[in-house]
Amino acid sequence: MSELLVDSNERPRCVVMKFGGTSVEDAAAIRRLCQIVNGRLRYHPVVVVSALAKVTDQLFAAGDAAARGDRENARAILQEIEGRHSTLSRELLEAEECNALCQDLAVDFCATYELLEGISVAGDFSLRAQDHLLGMGEHFSSKLVHSALVQNGLDAVWVDAKECIVTDAAHTRATPLWTETNQRLESLLGPLLGAGRIPVLGGFAGSTRDGVPTTLGRGGSDFSAAIVGAGLHAAKIEIWTDVDGVMTTDPNLCSEARCVGRMSFDEAAELAYFGAKVLHPSTLLPARRQNIPVWVLNSRNPYGAGTEISAHSHGDGRVKALSVKRGVAVVDVEPVRWLAPELLREVCEAFERYHHTLDLLSASRGSLSLLVTSTTSLPAIANELKGLASVRWENHKALVCLVGEKIRRRPEIASKVFRAIADIDVRLICQGASERNISFLVDESEAEESIKRLHKVFFSSESKPDAGASHYALCQSGGSWQ
Ligand code: ADP
Ligand code: ASP
Ligand code: MG
Q1: How far does the centroid of ligand 2 lie from the alpha carbon of residue 21, in Å?
Q2: Beta strand pairing status for 360-363 and 307-310?
Q3: Is the pTM for the entire model greater than 0.90?
């Protein structure tokens, strides 16, 4: 084995393989997963899985129903989830293994019914209860996938993600405590890898130092995979999903979207932050810090080239992809007297106090415009700023972004953009805050049309985007990923 594939503990470097909800949605998907993992054995896989498709939303609906006192509906939803896991166990496993798994899961489901009961008694679906309940989806799916891998003859070991990923107590959007998490990963997963075994764990969930369950935010299993990859000094992180890679835009919005061969960490992070659901926005942070390449691959088309995300951009000054962030509100802050620097500070601090992230800020002499993704605390913020400024906001806006390394330095890009959408009402334009992003705000109803037109301008006449090296070919040849 190449030296590059051995880490500082003299252990072979692993590959972290994350499978999203649709990649574990039914028996066929889980069988494909087993084949894909089987094809990576010599690269020492660690498997991270999401909940079965739709289960997280169902768990949320169950908790919500319980909090409203609708126990019957809450239980019915959980029964449906339990039924789906039992059916899959029967489809995937032989009788003995199926019984063992079903007995194990029955204990977990029993605890989950009790959790719903507790929510119902409290009449409150607190953020802490949400984390406990929603994290169960990955708990169930990871046990199922583990059994399926073992049934396929692989030496897999189920590991409780809550023991590995230690976070702060910011429920529903927890941040890992890196030192502790890395120590846990090393002590819990390191020996398994050293013994040639395959750790299998759920994504999305972690727990505080005191063992209280937390989650990393919706879509957070990608982030889990990157945390595990960084902690174990993986050779690479693979995000297996339902599209061929990172596409030039969301294929649901534009059927012409095609796979981007290569992107830089920064480009992919920008795209994820500005709405591309394919990656959780925090995924690239740990990967970039340790310079671990991230591949986005299609579990329904495992021999496809996929997208390689690494420190290199490959094609500066080119628009690589387009994204849309929906559900944005634009907040106008008009000072009572004039826009003094103190007011800017007061405004930022008020938003900070309410944990409101500002996506964009534009200031003129007379006023401020801010973009936010949640309006729940705006009445309270407006109240705090009363006397200093008047605060008004408009909902249902969408931020359309063009992403590509150094596109800011190409003035012709902005002029092409505004020619293409000349008849669309644009509220805010941001070019210059980042080297690799040009964004503008439109009504949500205009977002899809804007994307379609821009896609035509930037991707139809150009030659095909750089297809990158075939990931499959690299794996087959035993090529180094470094
Ligand atoms: P998973 O369940 O595997 O985590 P997600 O649904 O979270 O999958 O993410 C994949 C989805 O992201 C795709 O089906 C696609 O609709 C959406 N998406 C949005 N923007 C992009 C993009 N630029 N490239 C690829 N997929 C995108
Ligand atoms: N199951 C979680 C969600 O749906 C996490 C994930 O799939 O990444 O948000
Ligand atoms: Mg996802």
Answers
A1: 7
A2: unpaired
A3: yes
